Amino acid sequence: MKTAIIGCGGISHVHRAVLSAMDGVEIVGVADIKPDRAQAAAAACGARAYQDYLTMLDAETPDCVHICTPHALHTPMALAALQRGIHVLTEKPCATSRAEIDALIRAQRESGRQLGVCFQNRYNPAVQALVAALAHPETGPVKAIRAFVTWNRGRDYYSDDWHGTRALECGGVLINQAIHTVDLIQHLGGGCSAVTGHIFNDHLQGVIEVEDTAALRMTLQNGGVALLYATTAYGEDARVLIEVQCEKAVFRLEGGDLLFRLAADGTPVRLPVDPPAEVLGKQYWGGGHTALIRDFYDHLAAGRPFPIDAAEGGKASAIVAACYQSACGETEGKEVLL
C-alpha cells in the first residue's frame, strides 16, 4: 500500500517510524513547506520530497495520506485527499468547528474512503482495561468523571511559527494537549450533551495568543457530570489522571499504563494491565500510536470501517469548539448545547 505524509514536524517522526516498520506499506512521498525539512524526512524513509502537498497527492497517487500539520490545515487537507479518493489518517483535531466536522463527515461518506483520527490514547492498555471494566454489569452506570492534565510548556515550545497562534493552532492547551483527555472523557462516559468552559493565560501572557489553562464542565449523555482541569503552566509533565465514578465502583487511570480500583475507604488497588506497546515520542503521551496506526491499516486491508472516523473523532472537536464558545463573547460563562 502506498502512503504519504503531509507535514514533517515533530509528530510526523512517530508516524514515519511506525509506517517504516510495517510490511506491505511504502512511504512514497513527504511534503512540507520547509524544503530542508521535507528533504531530511524523505532521505530518512526513501521517499520523494515535495513542498506542495497537492502536487504530491497528484503525482504520487497514494492509497493513504497522514496529516501531521498545524491544526487549521487538517480539515482542508483531509477534504482535498478524500476528494481524490485517498484514505486519510489525521492528527488531532480533525476539525476546529462544527462546520468543518460536518464537511468531513459528508466528504468521507461521498468519497467512499476512510478517515481516521489519531486519538491514540484509546489504545493505551490501561484505557482498554477500563473500557472492559465499565462494560461489566457489576460496576453500574457512569455517574461522574474528573480529570487533570498538568503539563509544562514554556517559551521555547512556542518559538515556532504556529504554536500559540489563533490562526494556526486555533487554541491552546484545550485543543492541543487536553483534547485527548476530552476524547477519553466522552468515550468512557458515553458521550457529551453540553459544556461550560473557562480559559485563562496564567504564565504566558504576551508570549501566546491563546490559553495555557482551561476548566470545563461537561454534561454526559446519561445525565452524569464530568470536570476537566488542564494546564501547561505546571512545573513538570505529570501523568494524566482520570477518575471515573460509577454507581458501584470507582476507577482511576494514571497515564496509559496504570489503572486502579478504589476500595471503600479510598485506598487504590492496582488492577492488572497488559504491558504497554512500544512508546514512540514522549512517555506521557502514552504508547498508542503504534497500535492505532497498525489498526487503521488493518481496517483498510479488510475493508472494515475504522471506529474513530470523522463522526467519532469529531466528537472531541465539537466539545472543544463548544468550550471556546462558552468561554468567550456573548455566551461567556453559559452552557453550550452540542
Secondary-structure blueprint of this entry?
Blueprint: E1 2-6, H1 10-20, E2 26-31, H2 35-45, E3 48-50, H3 53-60, E4 64-67, H4 74-83, E5 87-91, H5 98-111, E6 115-118, H6 125-134, E7 142-150, H7 179-189, E8 192-200, E9 213-220, E10 225-231, E11 241-246, E12 250-254, E13 258-262, E14 268-270, H8 288-302, H9 310-327, E15 336-337
Parallel strand pairs: 1-2, 1-4, 2-3, 4-5, 5-6, 7-10
Antiparallel strand pairs: 7-11, 8-9, 8-15, 9-10, 11-12, 12-13, 13-14
Query: Spatial order of the strands in the main sheet?
Result: 14-13-12-11-7-10-9-8-15
Order of helices and strands: EHEHEHEHEHEHEHEEEEEEEHHE
Discrete helix count? 9
What is the terminal-to-terminal distance?
38 Å
Report mean pLDDT, rounded to a whole number.
Answer: 95
Number of self-contained structural domains: 2
| The CATH homology group name of the largest domain | Dihydrodipicolinate Reductase, domain 2
